[in-house]
Amino acid sequence: MDKLKEMVLERAKEGKIVFMTVDGPMEADLDKFIEQPAEGILYDLNRDRLTVLAFIDNPGWVNDFAVGLVITRLKEKLAGM
Questions:
Q1: Domain-by-domain residue ranges, the chain?
Q2: Exposed, middle or buried by CB within 10 Å (0-12, 13-18, 19+), for 18?
Q3: Mapped to the 3 state alphabet, what secondary structure does 27-55 carry?
Q4: Which residue from 1, 26, 34, 59 has the least number of CB within 10 angstroms?
Q5: pLDDT, tens digit, 9 for 90 and up, residues 30-60
Q6: How far apart are CA 11 and CA 17, in angstroms?
Q7: Helix (H) or strand (E) holding 18
Q8: Cα–Cα distance, 73 to 36 (Å, whole number)
């Protein structure tokens, strides 16, 4: 776990994002990652509505759901500029 923490923090310094997939950690350039539609961002981060609601018994779902709404609204506002 310490190795993963180090990797995530190091990649962040490099302008990259690390997220977990079924195959393990994946990294992407943050600027390129945020160019995709909100649905893609949320799906890649496992914060899409269906995934979040599947964990509704975990109190963390509230913040995960809020993150999804915020990202979606920010993308909408950026598209309107």
A1: 1-35, 36-81
A2: middle
A3: EEEHHHHCCCCHHHHHHHCCCCHHHHHHC
A4: 1
A5: 999 999 999 999 999 999 999 999 999 999 9
A6: 6
A7: strand 16-21
A8: 14
Q: What is the pLDDT of residue 1?
A: 75
φ, ψ of residue 21 in degrees (nearest 5): -125, 180
Spatial separation of the C-alpha atoms in residues 43 and 52, rounded to whole Å: 10
DSSP state of 58: S
CA–CA distance, 1 with 70 (Å, rounded to integer): 29
User: What single-letter amino acid sits at 27?
Assistant: E
Q: Is 24 helix (H, G, I), strand (E, B) or coil?
A: strand
For 8, the 3-state DSSP assignment is: helix
